[in-house]
Every structure is written in C-alpha cells, then in structure tokens.
Design goal:
Helix 7 packs parallel to helix 8. The protein has a single domain, classed as Aldolase class I (TIM Barrel, Alpha-Beta Barrel). The chain is built from ten helices and eight strands. It has an eight-stranded parallel barrel, surrounded by five helices. The longest helix is centred in the last third of the chain and has 19 residues. With 258 residues, the chain is α/β, with parallel strands linked by helices. The structure holds 2-phosphoglycolic acid (PGA). The site of 2-phosphoglycolic acid has 13 residues, from strand 8.
Length: 258
C-alpha cells in the first residue's frame, strides 16, 4: 500500500514566482530520489490560481515519479452561476488528481455544513478525483470525551450520498486532523492518535462494507521531528500545512516518513 505525504499550502505563497520555486525544489528532489520513493506518493495542494502554471511544470512526462497535484476544495455542481467557485471538471482538466474536502478551516471559517461536505465528497468521487476527507474534533469535544462520537458523525454525514453498492469508496482518503492541533504547534500525541486510528479503521470498515481498507492520514502540526511517530503507529501518511511551505523541512518530513 502506498504512503501519502500531502502538502496543504493553504493561502500561500503570495506570488507565482515563489510557488514555482517551492514546487520545483520538491519536484527536483523527488526526481533525484526516485529510488527511495517507490512506495510513497507526494501530493501538493496549492491555491487554485497556481494549479495551472504548476501543472505545466510537470510536462513533458519525461519520468514517472513526480508530485501529484491536489486542490484544496471544489464545488459540487457541474457548471453554471456559482460566482467564485471551481467545478470538479475544471480540476480534472488541469490534471488534478486529489482534492481536500471538509478541511476544518472550511468548516469553521466558511461555515461548510455536513451536507455541503457530503455533496463535495460525492462530486469528487463521481468525477474520479481522489478526495482527502478531513475530520477532527475540537478541543472542547475532546475534553468532554466526545472525540469518537464526533468523528463517527462526521464520517457518516460526509458519506450520506455515497452508498457502497453504487460507488467505489476505496479512493476516499481520510485525514484525521484534530482541530486543536492544526497550526498550533501542539500536535496530537502519537499514542492518542493511534487510539483514534484504531477506531477509524473499525468504523470505516463498517461504513465501507468492502474488504479493502481506506487510507488514513494524520494532520495537525506535523514537522520533521514528529512525522515518523505517526507513521510508526500505523497511519498511511500525513497532511502537512505550515511545514510544507519550507522545502527543506518538507523534504525532511518525507525522508523521515519512509
Ligand atoms: P498544520 O496544518 O500542519 O499547519 O497544522 C495542517 C492542515 O491544516 O492540514
């Protein structure tokens, strides 16, 4: 099974020049280290406006191993009067393979509801984009012992439009991102994350009702020091925010996760 290391650049960097520089440093490192990366997929999720110019840097296809492109969000409708939104097909047409759905910043800052997230997840699956579905509890929810309940509810509601008999749910990647750990420098303790992982493995199996297993990532204040801990406790990869903007640090995270 492949390991996934995902970079979520969020609303950074501020110029295309910087975005290209960051992207190229990772792409060039991957090219030089392809032998190490046979079982690892590196996915870069830049802001929408950089997807097209960065996709051009991946052409021509002179070698197999390269970063894959992911979007940070998508809209569920095919086309039409949705000012400011980006359709699944627009992403597909640029060669985007992955898309983050339901990130906690979208849930909390932009008030995305479970229903909206379910529609986005369905749109991604229908259009053969691999969704990275983010779920996670707030600090208050963790302190009151509601973590598992919240995660199960988030999973159930995100999947409400996707019946396993109609859709292949295997491409859905789950990212466990405790809200209190995102961008705070306060990562979840690996042993606590492991407990959640065990719960999620069990729960996704029940949802999925297939023999295959979902890939489950950890995200929230990942850095080069702690990356390995999450892989060791059994996560299939990492979703990295802040630390993915520093190419040296991001490369160290990849190396330490191999
Ligand atoms: P962080 O962000 O690594 O900066 O905590 C992770 C994320 O939001 O995906």
């Amino acid at each position: 099974m492949k390991k996934l290391i995902v970079a979520n650049w969020k609303m950074n960097p501020q110029s295309l020049l910087e975005a290209k520089k960051l992207f190229l440093s990772i792409k060039n490192w991957i090219k030089k280290n392809s032998a190490l990366l046979k079982k690892t997929e590196i996915i870069i999720c830049p802001p929408f406006v950089y997807l097209e110019p960065l996709s051009k840097l991946l052409k021509p296809k002179t070698y197999n191993l390269k970063p894959k492109l992911g979007a940070q969000d998508l809209f569920w409708a095919k086309m039409g009067a949705f000012t400011g939104e980006i359709s699944p097909m627009m992403l597909k047409n640029l060669g985007v393979e992955y898309v983050i759905v339901g990130h906690s910043e979208r849930r909390h800052i932009f008030k995305e509801t479970d229903e909206m997230i379910a529609k986005k997840l369905e749109a991604a699956i229908k259009n053969k984009l691999k969704p990275i579905l983010c779920i996670g509890e707030t600090e208050k929810e963790r302190k009151s012992g509601k973590t598992f309940k919240i995660l199960k509810n988030q999973l159930n509601s995100a999947m409400q439009n996707l019946k396993p008999t109609t859709y292949n749910l295997k491409p859905i990647i789950i990212a466990y991102e405790p809200v209190w750990a995102i961008g705070t420098g306060n990562p979840c303790k690996p042993e606590d994350a492991k407990e959640v992982l065990t719960f999620l493995r069990k729960t996704t199996k029940q949802l999925n009702n297939l023999t295959t297993q979902q890939l489950i990532l950890y995200g929230g204040s990942v850095n080069s020091q702690n990356a390995k801990d999450y892989i060791e406790v059994g996560f299939d990869g990492l979703l990295v925010g802040g630390a993915s903007l520093n190419p040296k640090e991001f490369i160290k995270i990849i190396k330490n996760s191999l």
